[in-house]
Each structure stands twice: as structure tokens, then as C-alpha cells.
Amino acid sequence: MAAVLGRVAELPSLLALSRSALVRHWDAPALDRALEWARYFQHVHDRFRARPQLREALGRRLRRAQPCSPPLGFSALGRCPELLGLALLENRSLPPAACRRLLRRLLLPPPPGAGTGPEPRGLALLARRKAAARLLALPRRPGGTEPRVRAEAQLLLGRLREEEAQEGAGAAGRPRWLCGVLERLPPPRAFAVVAAALALLGQGSGAEGAGEGDRDGSGPDGNRASAAGDGCIAGLLLSWLLGNRERFSAFCLCLPGSLLASLAGHYSQLSRSYLDLLTGWGSHLHYDPLQGRWVKSCLEKAELSWEELRGRFSYLCQGSALLREQTQAALKLLKTRDGDFKVRGLSVWTDLLMEVEK
User: Fold this and answer.
1) N or C: which end of the chain has fewer CB within 10 A?
2) What is the C-alpha to C-alpha distance for residues 207 and 223, in angstroms, rounded to an integer?
3) Count of CB atoms within 10 A of residue 184's CB?
4) pTM here?
5) CA–CA distances in Å: residue 258 to residues 43, 165, 252, 335
6) pLDDT tens-digit series, residues 220-239
7) Taking residues 112-121, what's their average pLDDT?
8) How many CA atoms lie within 13 A of 143 on its CB side?
9) What whole-number distance in Å separates Cα of residue 119 and Cα of residue 79?
């Protein structure tokens, strides 16, 4: 057992090496040895997964071997061929000959007598993750179409659902992975993908084209489990979005008011933050009697013009009955706090309320 523990401690080093530039020196035998080690770790997982004490010992040994967080757990041993294959496919330093060898090794059927095991699902999962990584990393062409954004959002949701469904997947790892993916994208594109993903989840149609084979919605238990999982994923996306005020402000400035109103109708957490943000922007407008209209009093802080702000509130009031009531109630409270004026030009909130109640 001591020898097994010692070998298991080498897994983080193997995965780190597969992501490094050192693989440019790998030839076919070196690649084969790495894949053999990956299968060995998978064998260790299959052998000890039903023995809790040994599982715990192997998990502790893995954690001690990793100074960084979130650490790999025991379940990573079972996914080692997939983790190694994905890391190598993503590594541009891998020589073409070794890459071709890797693809052949991944796609060839298992030798006679090797058993079935989890390989078919593992290969399908690997292919989807590879496609998602490639698509989300592509530079966006100007004038990109809505179907492209929707496809990217579906791929992102598929990956998050796979992480959610993985046995023993650490909850701390998903936010880190999500932040890493989204923050590598140009902000406008990341915002568009997140908005599309939240819209798909809110409409209950996020399963289209994204991980159908992994989601069984048959029966009430399956539907409840699926809804709970999608609720967790929506929470992750909202946490990323709302956890940074500057990021959320940029998100709201980047996207049209109609889309933001639709999202606010699905997510009360987002609607509250959006109304607070609009309130802050509206407070930096003042009435210019010479021009007869509301203008920006502080160019650095007033992000929206009067016309833009009026449009944002109008979209909110065109949404669901609940969203319209919440928006009008917020404007009435602001109007009261500002002096409860009933004529135009004295309070921006009075004028906004008059506009949306037309």
C-alpha cells in the first residue's frame, strides 16, 4: 500500500507536466508511458472506490502532494485518462506526431479482454469539453450572430452540468473554473455568453444541444434533480456577475435594456441589483432649464443619458406584472424621498414615473 500511495502522489506532477511546454520533447514512447500511468491511476480508483478507509488514505495523500487549491480528490484518479487527454489536446507544445498518436490511442477500441469500463462516456465527455474549450477561445468576429452566442452558452452550460454531475466534484472548484474561463474572454463576449446562459436556464430550455445524454428528465424525481442542478448553475453565474460591482455595471452597459429586463423577470437577485444600479445612475442627472431636459451632472459617474435611462425603466415596466409592480414601487419610493413633487423638472424620479405610467 505504501508503494501505491507513493505513486498516487505523482498524479499532480503528471498533469502539470502535460500542461507544460516540456511536452514538446515527447515522442511516441513517452506519450504511451504517460497514458499507461493514467490507466494505472484509473485502475487504482476502480480497485479501491468501494473501500472507504483506503479511499480516504489515497485522498489525503493526493491533497498533501498539491500545494495549490482546489486540490484533486480521489475521484480524479478515475478520470485521469480524460484529464490527461484533455490537457495534452489543449497543449500546443505537443508535437504533431505525438498528437496524432494520442488521438489514435484515444479513439481506438479497447483490446480484447480489457472490458468495457467507462471509456465510451469518457471519450464523449472529452470530445464535448474539447469543443467547448475551442469554441469559447475563438476570437469573436464583428457582427457575430445570435445563434453563435446561444451555441457558446449551451456549451458552457453543458460543461457546468458535467462538473455538477461528477462524482465527488468539489463545489469550490466550479467557481474557480468558471472565473478562469470567463475572465479570459473579452468582456463584451463573456457578458453575452453569460446573459444567454441565464436566459436559457430561466426559460427551462438550456438542455437543447448541451449534454442531453447526461440529463435524464424522465419522471418527477429526474425533473426535480435537473431543476435543482440548473438552480445551482444559475447561482454560480449570478455570483460571478454580481460579486463585482464594476463587472455588473459593465454588463448592464454592454447589453440592451430589453434583454436585461427579460433576465430581471427571471432572477429577483439580478432585478434588485439592476434597479439599484439604475437608481445610482439616475441620481447623477440634473434638470437644465435652458435646455428643458435632464442632463448629466457628472460625466464620470452618470453612465446613461435621460433618454437611455427612461428606456431602461420602460423595458422593466413592459415585463411581467411582478417586475412592473416592483419597478413602479421603487420609483414611487424614490419620488417620495425626493420631495414627492407632482410637476416635471423637479425630480428625475417624478419624471420617470410619469413616463412609465403613460
Assistant:
1) C
2) 12
3) 10
4) 0.60
5) 53, 33, 11, 24
6) 444 555 666 788 889 999 99
7) 44
8) 0
9) 10
